[in-house]
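WARN no homologs supplied; continuing
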Amino acid sequence: MEEVIKFLNQNRLGYLATVDNGKPRVRPWGFMFEENGKFWFCTNNTKSVYKQLMEVPYIEFSCSNPEFNTWLRISGKITFARDKGIKEKIFQANPMLKNMYQSADNPIFEVFYLEHGSASIAGFTAPEQKFQF
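OK structure emitted
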């Protein structure tokens, strides 16, 4: 899993896929960080993506490294958390979010993690590496 964590830390911006009325919905998204085997993300509970995640708590996040022609996909079931400490760490990892939400106590600021699932790293010239976590 070290390869997955390293790839995500070097390529934080990617795309998040959810399910909306039985159809895929993909949008640009940012990976926050990994801690204790949990891959952390955040959102705003007034957005439609939050409703989608509450209804179908399965995601796939994909990011790429164009320099090396490689990409990563990570997927599984997410869990929302009410952890103020994690919210503060997310603000440290991405100060723009603190400008948006001002405080970890902001009631619209939500954090979620992916703890169990699968990941793969692939490329045009390299064989696919698969991981379970």
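The mean pLDDT is 96.
OK
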